[in-house]
Automatic annotation (TrEMBL):
<dbReference type="Pfam" id="PF07690">
    <property type="entry name" value="MFS_1"/>
</dbReference>
<keyword id="KW-1133">Transmembrane helix</keyword>
<protein>
    <submittedName>
        <fullName>MFS transporter</fullName>
    </submittedName>
</protein>
<feature type="transmembrane region" description="Helical">
    <location>
        <begin position="283"/>
        <end position="302"/>
    </location>
</feature>
<dbReference type="GO" id="GO:0005886">
    <property type="term" value="C:plasma membrane"/>
</dbReference>
<feature type="transmembrane region" description="Helical">
    <location>
        <begin position="344"/>
        <end position="369"/>
    </location>
</feature>
<feature type="transmembrane region" description="Helical">
    <location>
        <begin position="106"/>
        <end position="127"/>
    </location>
</feature>
<feature type="transmembrane region" description="Helical">
    <location>
        <begin position="308"/>
        <end position="332"/>
    </location>
</feature>
<dbReference type="GO" id="GO:0022857">
    <property type="term" value="F:transmembrane transporter activity"/>
</dbReference>
<keyword id="KW-0812">Transmembrane</keyword>
<feature type="transmembrane region" description="Helical">
    <location>
        <begin position="20"/>
        <end position="43"/>
    </location>
</feature>
<feature type="transmembrane region" description="Helical">
    <location>
        <begin position="81"/>
        <end position="100"/>
    </location>
</feature>
<dbReference type="InterPro" id="IPR020846">
    <property type="entry name" value="MFS_dom"/>
</dbReference>
<keyword id="KW-1003">Cell membrane</keyword>
<feature type="domain" description="Major facilitator superfamily (MFS) profile">
    <location>
        <begin position="1"/>
        <end position="400"/>
    </location>
</feature>
<dbReference type="InterPro" id="IPR050171">
    <property type="entry name" value="MFS_Transporters"/>
</dbReference>
<keyword id="KW-0472">Membrane</keyword>
Amino acid sequence: MTTLAPSASLIETHRPSRGFWLVAGAFLTAMAFSTVPAPLYAIYHLSPFVVTVVFAMYAVGVVVSLLLAGHISDWVGRKRILIPALALEVLAAVVFLSSTALPALLLARLVSGLGVGLITATATAWLSELHFLDRPDSSSTRFEVVSTAANIGGLGVGPLVSGVLAQYVDAPLRTPYLVFAVLLLLAIVGVGISRETVEIRPERPAWRPQRVRIIGRRYLAAATTAFTAFAVFGLFNSLAPGFVSGTLHHPSRALAGLIVFVVFGAAAAAQTATSRVRPGARFCGGLAVEAVGLIVLATGMAQASLAGFLVGGALAGAGAGVVFKSAIGSVVASAAPEARGEALAGLFLIAYLGLVIPSLALGVATQLIGATAAMLWFTGALLALLATGALLAPKTSRDR
């Protein structure tokens, strides 16, 4: 891959600052759309297990997309990947609008996951390049804050918007998807007029799936804690809204969307707030906050307390956000430059397995032993994994 070197004339002519914000908006819109169904599942009248299966289809799509095509924008250009990826999200919206039957939901979630896998890798790289074209002598702070807000923050915006629309606007299973279909089409236009940052060469490398490399004890610590972080995100993207409407007897779709927004918003805010904290202190602090949040969350569920559920979710989300940021930083710092892409691919693969496996296990457990008991087991398992991650991390990493 060759990125275009910044120059005064290039910056003047192509306005990378405008492209930076257009790509950020497209990134946020796509990530928000990926979580639109979260507060709507109760309206579909699906069992907790079926909800987790529908959600797992999304995670499968993301993993497949990351492994097969997440890296090819380096060869063909960011725009040539991001526009088709956004088109996949529009297609998913069309499928959602076409039917409320289970096969349509499964297909729509799979298609959405395939698009998100492409969008996450491509938009992040593009934002970094546009940032340095626009501000070649600045730090990466703006890029890090904006990409985090678009990615993790977007995941919280989607349920908030869809929950409010479902609560107060007619056709709750159509209006949210129509709104986001329009926003996605506008995002495609914005991406289309943004500055390309990859110089496309006639010769291209032979295609191969993204290689995955898992190396060392420090890497295992990062992967284990990333798994727990995504398990928390998966819980609130799948089962939490149904628990609030069922067990806690708060059927408001707006409330369900707000709860998911609080978790992801806390994650994005905590990631931004800890940007200048030493890596070791950030890692330990994230583990502690996530652990406390899980305990408060489980206690709130056991006592059928909405306040406890909200506070626990916010704490667990904040801790998970910091833990995942620390995991990425640890892998980037420890992997050799030539192996960094493969190491990060492995980290994301394990993290997305954290979306699938715990959610499916929880879905099965809720059918057998009830939601509260299943959550207690879920909390215990994640606390054990957090402790494992802390023990695996080299002492030097914890002390830095």
